[in-house]
Model the fold of this input.
Amino acid sequence: MTTELFSKILVANRGEIACRVFKTAKRLGIGTVAVHSEADANALHVEMADEKVFIGAAPASQSYLVIDKIIEACKETGADAVHPGYGFLSERAEFAERLKAEGITFIGPPVNAIEAMGDKITSKKIAAEANVSTVPGFMGLIDDAEHAVEIANGIGYPVMIKASAGGGGKGMRIAWNDAEAREGFDRSKSEAASSFGDDRIFIEKFVTEPRHIEIQVLADSHGNAVYLGERECSIQRRNQKVIEEAPSPFLDAETRKAMGEQAVALAQAVGYSSAGTVEFIVDKDRNFYFLEMNTRLQVEHPVTELITGVDLVEQMIRVAAGERLSITQDDIKLKGWAIESRLYAEDPYRNFLPSIGRLTRYRPPAEGKRFDGVIVRNDTGVFEGGEISMFYDPMIAKLCTWAPSREEAVEAMAESLDAFEVEGIGHNLPFLSAVMDHPRFRSGAITTAFIAEEYPDGFSGAELSADNLRLVAATAATAQWIADRRASFISGRMEKGAKYGPSETPFVVRAAGEEFEIAIDDEATRGFYDQESLTAPPNGEWGTPIWLTFADEDETRAYQIAWRPGDRIATIFAETDEEGHWREIAAMKIVPIPGGFRVRYRGADLKVKVMPPHVARLAALMPEKQPPDTSNLLLCPMPGLVVALNVAEGDEVQEGQTLAIIEAMKMENVLRAEKAGKVAKIPVEVGASLAVDAVIMEFER
Done:
């Protein structure tokens, strides 16, 4: 009953995780309180809560990380419990202790568990004592960079250098030699100090061909504990998870059981209660090694909820209120498959560097259960018109799909990403789409090196298959045909309901270096297009099929395309059988540009030219505009803060030499020289805030 839980919960966090907790709290009839910084005054989580409290300036160190302000907000509103979300104070033992001293319930594990598992060095020792398989490494304190090199040589390269108090990929580096060990130690130590206030570092063996698989555990304060299957988190970039799924396509039942039992044993060894995650690294032979335990709710928890039907936030609240778990291990059944894609404000065309600004358009796909049984879920903390700030994590949303099988879940995710509209900032949506269509990902043969191996030179857009490129060409030609018809109606050149003059309309379509000659058969198009109906969805509900022929094919194709001039999404249907049934086969983002359309589909971002044949012949003779030469400039690749300038005006630099360090979204980015040269001018100084493409250095030509 609600009376047995809490009267009011304050979420000491922001963004999508605060919104997520509020949803469950409201369903349970519990009051909600949001805290917010100056930058988040109009944020979605603030709007969702019953009450709100301002706690300080935009930097987290002056707001979300200030324990006194959180406690004062609890007192001001009468909140009797605090959910920490993830990040910020979620794994800070001091925070849990202070709340307890004030008589406020911490919706999370006991202090001793946070202390034991929050320190990666201590946690590995405890794991070893609990007979949990661990990775070889050095758990003691490391004096300096030279000591780090000595340890790395003793373990054997490659090694992973990690912040003891780290998380979210911060304070983490892989070193393959002595030089990388020295620099990795310095950078990890610096990031750890700025992100966690704790610069302790440890080193362990880096497992090659690894998979990152984690076990979700749930425990109460009465000695009961269960595991809720695993999550595959191997698609990572810079040690930051990008795509997760549950269950793993790699594990067998025997390995799943062994990992789950070890995770529960570790939780019980530290007297754990609440939801938590035990992370493992798994090699190609299914040998698994303990990495760390996250004593909080994980970002990727929705996929576990989708395959188990368990609301993890609700369980955390009930456990914190002193209830026993209402489920046993035998009650937990894994059903179907779930995929999560993390949509970040990171520009994939600029090596995934952070992007900030206003969301001029934000239209996620519809949530809920679809007609084919697929479930779409979107956890978000933003809205159209809101801003992505430079002060916090760049996550925009977590898009999830569930289906009976992995193949169906992946395809549902690909379709949902195609229909997800985000404008105004750089974002990784095209990259997520490309991964969903990648043969290696589809096969499940993935490791944590997937992105580095498949995109070694960064991401410059996906290359569409021949069939998909033809579909893009057909869609663009049809969109042009519809737009031309509409223009004829508006100009009065065509009366409403009139038939068209020519028997067919020819187009030349150029996309991705390919050229297609397409003829749309006007006479074969059954029915009429008028000012009210300028599109063609399935079964004639809104219109009729478009019949077209590619010049290099004998067969005429029929499509129905739900699109009107002004629409940003074109939905394409095709016949599925001889009885005339139609089904949706694609959704494309399509907007007019001079001479054609910009079309985005399955990770490709194309400028598609659509022209009459005589115009196409002339266009082929036009020279292409060349971009300006910036080869002698070091440009800021993302909005950020200048942390260090490692050279001075007049210095000679060598290829690969560190020139500057830019901090953005709590990550330090090292900028190196692409070639040897001499620094002519440095127009910025340390501490300056720079915009994208701001000039940091100018070199002599």
